[in-house]
Amino acid sequence: MKRYLLIMISLLVAGVAEGQNGFNVPFSQFSVGESELPYNMPWVYGMCGVTISRASRNTVNPFNPASYAAVEEESLWFDIGVNIQQSTLRKGDAKLTDAAGDIAYLAIAFPVTKWWKTSAGIMPYSKMNYESVNTSYDPLSGSNVETVYSGGGGVTQVYWGNAFNITKNLSAGFNINYLFGSIERAITYNFVGNDTSYMMDKRSQKNTQVSNLLVDLGVQYRQPLNEQYTLNTGLTCRLPRSMQVTDQSLVYTLVETSTDEYLLDTIFPVRGADDTYLSTLEQPFAFGVGVALERNELWQVAVDVCYAPWSGLKYTENIDYNVFGKSALDYAPNWRVALGGEWMGDKNASSYWKRIGVRAGVYYNKGRLALDMTMNPTVGQKTSLDEVGCGLGFALPMRKGRSVLNISMGYSSFGNIDLLRRNCFTVGLSVGSCERWFVKRRYN
After folding, report:
1. Taking the model in full, what pTM does it have?
2. Which of 12, 158, 199, 377 has the fewest Cβ atoms nearer than 10 Å?
3. For the stretch 61-79, what's the b/e string if a residue is b when 16 or more beta carbons lie within 10 angstroms of its beta carbon?
4. How far is CA 268 from CA 207, 275, 320, 351, 427, in A?
5. Could you tell me how far CA 356 lies from the centroid of its own chain?
6. Following CA atoms 349, 352, 355, 357 in sequence, which dihedral angle do they give, to the nearest 10 degrees?
7. Dmax of the chain from CA atoms?
């Protein structure tokens, strides 16, 4: 067991080191950043997000809290993973390629009683990292104006979940999710040219602090069809909630030198006013249904269907003076369909190769992001940005015990080539430790 813990700690340290870097993701500028759930866990995107009906024997599944009921007595599950991504942004013939890595998640699960199991973990909920420059001509000053859009930060999710064995084949559970994080964004107007002495550069910046709770519910049911086949079903839902976040905004003129910049005059907030105010985040009621056909714990074929009135959290700035003006972000119904298959491996086989698990899947995410390109609410012309992807994964069992090493690869394409398309290739590695910890040794 010490060897497994050493591997996990090494992965954690490597993930922290890699996680300091991030690539440019222009779509992340909306709301509280771009969410990667549920594709941030290596074993998950091996099957492209098929999680609702799944209760693995050696990995923690926080996407349906009812799955914790599969934790065996006297066992402790410990799961940790890291990701490395290569992203390519394309618009017309132009493209930009970058790479980054980070921690995917950290989770544990263990039994409290024979019928009550619990789990806790931490994972990224959303990330924001973007910078883009738009150059235009200002006839008033006779110079060009560089408009720089930039932002960074993210939201982290910590969860505590519980599952209960209602009957032999029925389990139910819930997650309490705590979201916290800080997001900073800015728009800077730089006047460039021969004579800009009477035109001052201006910057609008805003910091958003998130600290909120969300609740997930889940149910799973196993129905044996005969001696060989079992039908597994699952249902999840996230309860709707309207939350408040703290915004702090500042609009000012500045003077830039070759080495530094200086604040010249404050435009907003007005002198004597408080620059801190409350804005709103809304989580809609979201639900998912999953069905899987399993044969003797050897293989399974599964499908998930999820729906929400919109994807992620809806952000509304509650202030008369909108620091960044009208957002192009619109909200549209979000559907996600994922289909996956898995050879679970024969755990009783004498050959190591026959015990290796293989999983693969495809998915389609409709309405993950919607933009109003007209910026005119009376027109209401929405551009829905959809996502498609595929994945492949391998579960390599440890030679001793029930622990497993998951290696997964995923590919996704998001957006459209006329506006902006992001193609992303992800490689993930995770260790799922499933060992007996609560056994009192006896000696004869």
Report:
1. 0.87
2. 377
3. bbbbbbbbbbbeeebbbbb
4. 14, 8, 12, 70, 45
5. 28
6. -170
7. 94
Going 366 to 367 to 369 to 370, the CA torsion angle's sign is: positive
> What is the chain's length?
444
Q: Could you tell me the two tokens for 120?
A: 């806790």
Q: Say how far apart CA 413 and CA 409 lie, in whole Å.
A: 14
273 class by beta-carbon count within 10 Å (0-12 exposed, 13-18 middle, 19+ buried): exposed
Interior CA angle at 347 toward 343 and 350, to 5°? Answer: 115
Yes or no: say if 266 and 18 are a contact pair by the CB < 8 Å rule. no
Tens place of pLDDT for every residue, the chain, 444 residues?
445 445 544 544 444 444 444 678 888 888 888 887 777 788 888 888 899 999 877 789 999 999 999 988 778 888 888 888 898 988 888 888 888 888 888 999 999 999 999 999 999 999 999 888 888 777 766 678 888 889 999 999 999 999 999 999 999 999 999 999 999 999 888 877 655 555 668 888 889 999 999 999 999 999 999 989 999 999 999 999 999 999 988 888 887 766 777 777 777 775 556 678 888 999 999 999 999 999 988 899 999 999 999 988 999 888 776 777 777 788 889 999 999 999 988 877 888 888 899 999 999 999 888 887 665 555 556 778 899 999 999 999 886 667 888 999 999 999 887 888 999 999 999 888 776 665 555 554
Residue 319 has what DSSP assignment?
-
Phi and psi at residue 442, in whole multiples of 5°?
-125, 145
